[in-house]
Structures are given as structure tokens and as C-alpha cells.
Write a structure and sequence with these properties.
With about 325 residues, the protein is of the alpha+beta class. The protein is about 35% helix and about 25% strand. It has eleven helices and eleven strands. Strands 1, 2, 3, 4, 5, 6 and 11 form a seven-stranded mixed beta sheet that branches. Helix 2 packs across helix 3 and helix 2 packs across helix 4. The longest helix is centred in the middle third of the chain and has 20 residues. The two termini are about 20 Å apart. Bound molecules: adenosine-5'-triphosphate (ATP) and L-homoserine. L-homoserine binds next to helix 4 and helix 5. InterPro entries: GHMP_kinase_C_dom, GHMP_kinase_C_sf, GHMP_kinase_N_dom, GHMP_knse_ATP-bd_CS, Homoserine_kinase, Ribosomal_Su5_D2-typ_SF, Ribsml_uS5_D2-typ_fold_subgr. It catalyses: L-homoserine + ATP = O-phospho-L-homoserine + ADP + H(+). GO terms for molecular function: ATP binding; homoserine kinase activity. Its main location: cytoplasm.
Length: about 325
Amino acid sequence: MAPAAVRVRVPASTANLGPGFDALGMALDLYARIEMSEADRTQIELFGSNMQGIPTDKTNLIYKVAGTLYHHAGLPMPELSIRMDSDIPLTRGLGSSASAIVGALAAANALSGADLPPDELFQIASGMEKHPDNVGASLFGGIIAAYWDGHEAKHVRIEPHERLEALVAVPAFQLSTEHARRVLPDQVPMKDAVFNIGHSSLLVAALAAGELGMIRHAMKDALHQPYRAALVPGMEKILREAADHGALGAALSGAGPTLIAFADKSEGRQEELEAFLRETFRAEGIEAETRWLRPSREGVRVWKLAGGEPSFEEFAGGAE
Ligand SMILES: Nc1ncnc2c1ncn2[C@@H]1O[C@H](COP(=O)(O)OP(=O)(O)OP(=O)(O)O)[C@@H](O)[C@H]1O
Ligand SMILES: N[C@@H](CCO)C(=O)O
């Protein structure tokens, strides 16, 4: 039976991990939350500072994605009451759009009673986002190796190593994926393609085998980061020197402008690495907020509400 209301919690994600352009993603323990129920008239309420500028009418991405799910399931689209809160900064390379897509699909899937299997949601989400890296991570959690060929997406999930943690440096400016894809060339030299196949393969093997020491050799890219460097001052220096300050490896997170550095929790050089990232950005005149995150082992989680649950504000504040 379809529930009267549902809530979902969906993780942020970092895409590419350097060489795995449009193919690798990792879920991070930073979350967005959505509550959805049927209503007489559509109403969208957004909470928190990360929702600024997001529309609250039927052009809202959450509402539109829910419509796609109902359409896909062959069900009539109802009017909806939607509430959303997010700790994921918008348009910074931490997968805010993927979290919105996956969160809305999972919520509408449960609310409608369609109960499509997770892989079907993955197909729909990959088609919407046009690459499977962020949506796969937000949906399944952990680390995802995936492709989407324009018709079909396939993935394998890798369990993150228990000592792996990530430092993100989030600059105080936005960079849309659309803009950061426009600077990429249509064609690349064969040697760059071969470079990325080798490094991406090594990275996947290192992550799967838990060989953290191999990450610094593998996390190098010739397909997108060199072209995007001009959009993110300080990025080249961070990618070149982060390992000298205790990082296992560093990459542009998704389409940027956030930089992400991975570390081994047991090595104890967190403060040095954090200062290096912040000061490198500051030397370019950019304020960046730094934050340590862990991989989120869990992907999107759904609760069907029966009544008597804590308020949405309490849920958004961490109550479950
Ligand atoms: N909760 C939301 N509700 C509605 N629209 C959203 C929401 N979250 C993100 N979006 C839309 O997605 C856009 C950001 O998508 P974009 O792909 O450019 O960046 P990102 O997903 O944050 O980063 P990246 O894809 O590089 O990891 C926002 O400007 C907004 O239009
Ligand atoms: N793989 C994508 C992630 C951003 O959505 C890119 O780098 O453009």
C-alpha cells in the first residue's frame, strides 16, 4: 500500500576521482533530506542556506523529477507537498543536482507505490544527469565504477577502505557543470586517452584492493582537469603538491570548483593538509571552506511515514 508521506536522506558525492571522468564516484557523509506527500495543491518549502535561489513552483527540479517517476511508472502525477533541506552546497562539485535527482526519484518511487527496483532508478537518474558517477554514488553509497552509453548504465560498487577520509575545500564561488563541460575539447590525443585508461584502472584496483598507498600514483588525469584548471585558480598547485602535505591523492571534485584531497586517517597530517589547501586558495584571493568528510557507505535511505514521527525540522536536524 502506498504511504501517506515519505522522507528520504540522500548523500552528496564526488565524481571523477581524477582520472575516472564520468565513470567514478564516491558518496560522502553530507546529506540532503526530502519529505514528500500528496496534496490538494503543489507546495514546495525549502529550508537552510543551501537552497537559496531554488524555485518553489512546478519548475523545481524535485517536482519535475517526481513527475518523471510517475510518468515512467504509468501513474497519474498528483499535486505534491515537498519539503527539502540540504547540507550540500549548490553548484560546487559535490553532486547537489544528483542528490536532488536521486532523492526525488526515491521519494516519488515510495510515495507512488511504484516500488521500482534500485537499478531502474539508476537508469532513469543516469539518463537525466547524462553521466552515472554522481547519481550512482548517491543511490548506492560507497564508491561506484560505472558507465552510461546513452541508453544503459552499468555499475559495480566498491566498499570504501575504513581508514579513507576526504578533505574538501569549497571555494566561495559557484561553477556550473554546464560551464565546466563547455571548456572540454571534443577530441583528445590518443596518448591522453591511454594515460587515463591506465590511471583509472589502477585507481579502481587500488580502491578495491584497499591499497591506499597506490592512490597517489593513480589519481592523475589528462582528460578534464588540465582544461578546467583555468576556471579554478590554485587548483594546479593543489593537485601537484597535496601529496607532499600528507594527501593520498587529490582531484577536482566533480566539475569543480571544490578540490578534494584523500587521506589515511591513521597518518595524522590532517591539520597540515587543511592549512595547505586553504592557504593555496587564499594566495589566489579565494576564500575556501574546508571540511573533513567520510565516505558514506549508505546511499539514499527511504522512510515511509505512518504518523507520530518527529517534525521535518527535527528530521533535518539529525533525528531519524
Ligand atoms: N535541491 C535542489 N532543488 C532544485 N534544484 C537543485 C537542487 N539541487 C541542485 N539543483 C540544481 O542543480 C544545479 C547545480 O547542478 P550542477 O551539476 O551545476 O552542480 P553540482 O551538482 O552541485 O556539482 P557537480 O555535478 O559538479 O558535482 C543548481 O544550480 C540547481 O539548479
Ligand atoms: N563527471 C561530471 C561530474 C559533474 O557533474 C563532470 O566532471 O562534468
